């Protein structure tokens, strides 16, 4: 497998040589205008399919060989927690948030200052003296969240400041889909929280959201082909629901849809697999053909969804949306934007002027297969609108500067299509604060025709 993945990287480089509310947020006193009031959102079609149909909609972006290599990479990454024998993260990494928040406890979910002893009490409950106490494979039997400390309570910075408060809970690492393989390497003193690794991050989850797996379970799960959920809120047995990005073993397929195996809690704390049938509109065998049309079909099902830092409250931020979007196509992406920006060959735009950046994007980026990156944010290039590069992204807001010098945010707060000059007509969005000024690189996930 390593030789095949190395071959894929060499092929891609050769080609390019020729790239997270359940509770209401605190109002921002420095916000300007209303949510979404920028010209781009009034004039640009908020459908990625509109762009796909203008860009060879059915032309594969990956050759059959490249698609197979990508799926191998996806599978190896997805099942990594079941093949490791020791933690991939150190005690120092686990202790870091406790140390940080003992010094700076911040604010709770009701925007009240936290007790200075809060993080120290949490650290005692984590009982890390015997770290790592466990070494067991498990699986997520519910949709859940990875937390920096073993608590569902929030830790916000000062909510009166722009870009702080809900949804920016700094204990929220990531949402975790039902069926995600896990490696459990510690537990709290009372066993109510487990410290786990997922394929893409680590942290604490509530113990009832995971079930341990044995060798027979892992063999059955890993031996099957994979199926991907391609619509949000797909009902599953037991009152569960699956979202785009959820990957499950494929048990069979027919003209009506696919049968998948869904992990559930079983006797003795071990997981069991239960078979259920999903319609062709809800799930599909992996990998889906990576064409602009098919990517757009999945992307449009997330269009307009509310922004959620780190997957908070079952919502998505910029990187979780991009990661979930490409999962059905067998393209593995890391969890955060900076890591995603390194997920393929890259082209730096750092030394270019805004106009030069736009020229480079138009001439080099491949619609639906190129990520546009700036620090803290990732976007998918979908093509041109009136001669300007257009991107699909889940964005919180645009940085503003008020007349009296106060910082602010023009909140968009959802998945949208914009140019990289979104908000240019708003006086408070100064030229240096436009997205195009902050864009640093392109990342190429695929190129068509190879």
TrEMBL record:
For the keyword Protease, the answer is: yes
**UniProt KW keywords:** Hydrolase, Protease, Signal, Thiol protease
Q: Which PROSITE patterns match?
A: NLPC_P60, PROKAR_LIPOPROTEIN
> From the UniProt record, which GO molecular function terms apply?
cysteine-type peptidase activity
Q: Which residues form the NlpC/P60 domain?
A: 288-418
Pfam families listed in its UniProt record: N_NLPC_P60 (PF12912), NLPC_P60 (PF00877), SH3_6 (PF12913)
Q: What are the boundaries of the signal sequence?
A: 1-24
- Tree of life domain: Bacteria
Question: What GO biological process terms does the UniProt entry carry, in alphabetical order?
Answer: proteolysis
Q: Which family does it belong to?
A: Belongs to the peptidase C40 family.
UniProt protein name? Glycoside hydrolase
| Native species | Desulfolutivibrio sulfodismutans
């Amino acid at each position: 497998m390593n030789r095949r993945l190395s071959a894929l990287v060499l092929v891609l480089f050769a080609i390019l040589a020729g790239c997270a509310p359940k509770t209401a947020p605190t109002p921002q006193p420095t916000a300007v205008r209303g949510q979404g009031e920028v010209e781009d959102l009034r004039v640009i079609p908020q459908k990625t399919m509109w762009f796909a149909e203008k860009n060879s909609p059915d032309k594969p972006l990956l050759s059959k060989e490249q698609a197979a290599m990508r799926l191998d990479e996806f599978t190896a990454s997805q099942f990594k927690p079941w093949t490791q024998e020791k933690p991939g993260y150190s005690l120092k990494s686990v202790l870091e948030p406790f140390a940080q928040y003992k010094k700076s406890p911040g604010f709770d979910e009701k925007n009240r200052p936290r007790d200075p002893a809060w993080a120290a009490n949490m650290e005692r409950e984590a009982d890390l003296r015997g770290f790592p106490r466990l070494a067991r494979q498990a699986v997520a039997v519910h949709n859940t969240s990875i937390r920096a400390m073993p608590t569902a309570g929030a830790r916000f910075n000062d909510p009166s400041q722009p870009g702080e408060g809900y949804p920016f809970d700094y204990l929220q690492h990531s949402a975790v889909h039902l069926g995600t393989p896990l490696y459990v390497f510690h537990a709290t003193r009372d066993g109510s929280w487990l410290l786990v690794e997922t394929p893409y991050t680590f942290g604490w989850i509530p113990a009832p959201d995971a079930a341990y797996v044995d060798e027979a379970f892992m063999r059955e799960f890993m031996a099957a082909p994979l199926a991907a959920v391609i619509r949000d809120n797909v009902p599953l047995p037991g009152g569960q629901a699956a979202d785009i990005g959820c990957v499950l073993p494929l048990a069979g397929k027919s003209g009506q849809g696919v049968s998948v195996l869904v992990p559930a809690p079983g006797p003795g704390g071990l997981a069991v697999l239960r078979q259920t049938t999903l319609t062709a509109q809800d799930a599909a065998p992996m990998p889906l053909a990576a064409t602009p049309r098919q990517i757009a079909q999945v992307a449009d099902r997330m269009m307009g969804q509310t922004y959620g830092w780190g997957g908070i409250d079952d919502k998505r931020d910029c990187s979780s949306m991009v990661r979930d979007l490409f999962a059905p196509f067998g393209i593995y992406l890391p969890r955060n934007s900076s890591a995603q920006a390194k997920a393929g060959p890259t082209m730096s735009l750092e030394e270019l002027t805004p106009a030069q950046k736009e020229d480079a994007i138009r001439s080099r980026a491949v619609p639906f297969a190129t990520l546009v990156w700036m620090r803290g944010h990732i976007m998918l290039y979908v093509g041109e609108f009136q001669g300007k590069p257009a991107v699909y992204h889940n964005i919180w807001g645009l940085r503003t500067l008020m007349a009296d010098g106060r910082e602010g945010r023009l909140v968009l707060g959802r998945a949208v299509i914009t140019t990289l000059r979104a908000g240019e007509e708003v006086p408070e969005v100064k030229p240096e604060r436009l997205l195009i000024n902050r864009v640093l690189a392109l990342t190429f996930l695929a190129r068509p025709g190879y």
